[in-house]
């Protein structure tokens, strides 16, 4: 009955980039809205007849729109530069161009998954920072936003260790390398440092506990960043 009530529409090409398996649901949902250009950016609010300033809240140098907020804003550029150095993906300078690059990405499964996680996290935290400045008058630097983004991705990758660790050994190894918590964990995309090789005789539970302990030391300033 449900399917009979639905209109038949062709499958969009960007579905696998917006709704990846194992992604973070709230990130994917926001990415879907941004892809459809349905977020209440200031250019759209003005079209609705609202009396709001058109200026971008992140850079204060240009009018806010989807394409500006996510690919032309200086704040986005600084945040994306921190992320791309760690996941090895160089995006395009336009929304459609970057989306097409992700759709046609030729890397391995774990490389693709990491790129999609990082890309969607960038979108989520940029929009979150914009809303915090607008509604709560809270301002954070791009480094502070990246720290939140980094923790979110590492926590998500940590969930793969127990469930999909065998399928994504390299992705799991990135869990300790995105922020550089310690050189011994350094295993960015393109390296040959696999979690299964280094910790092959240690259960995933012990690894998660050990990593949580090291992360706690790092947060307390007792472990070098």
From TrEMBL:
<feature type="domain" description="Reverse transcriptase zinc-binding">
    <location>
        <begin position="2"/>
        <end position="76"/>
    </location>
</feature>
<protein>
    <recommendedName>
        <fullName>Reverse transcriptase zinc-binding domain-containing protein</fullName>
    </recommendedName>
</protein>
<dbReference type="InterPro" id="IPR026960">
    <property type="entry name" value="RVT-Znf"/>
</dbReference>
<dbReference type="Pfam" id="PF13966">
    <property type="entry name" value="zf-RVT"/>
</dbReference>
């Amino acid at each position: 009955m449900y399917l009979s009530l639905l209109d038949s529409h062709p499958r969009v090409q960007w579905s696998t980039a917006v709704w990846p398996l194992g992604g973070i649901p709230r990130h994917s949902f926001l990415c879907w809205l941004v892809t459809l250009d349905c977020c209440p950016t200031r250019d759209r609010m003005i079209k609705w007849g609202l009396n709001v300033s058109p200026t971008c809240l992140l850079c204060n140098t240009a009018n806010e729109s989807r394409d500006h907020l996510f690919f032309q804003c200086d704040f986005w550029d600084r945040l994306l530069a921190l992320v791309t150095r760690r996941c090895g993906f160089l995006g395009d300078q336009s929304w459609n161009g970057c989306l097409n690059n992700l759709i046609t990405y030729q890397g391995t499964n774990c490389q693709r998954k990491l790129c999609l996680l990082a890309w969607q996290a960038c979108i989520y935290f940029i929009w979150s920072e914009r809303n915090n400045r607008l509604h709560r008058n809270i301002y954070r630097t791009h480094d502070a936003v990246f720290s939140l983004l980094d923790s979110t991705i590492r926590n998500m990758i940590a969930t793969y260790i127990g469930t999909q660790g065998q399928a994504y050994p390299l992705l799991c190894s990135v869990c300790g390398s995105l922020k550089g918590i310690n050189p011994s964990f350094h295993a960015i995309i393109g390296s040959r440092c696999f979690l299964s090789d280094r910790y092959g005789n240690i259960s995933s539970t012990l690894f998660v506990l050990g990593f949580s302990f090291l992360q706690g030391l790092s947060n307390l300033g007792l472990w070098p960043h």
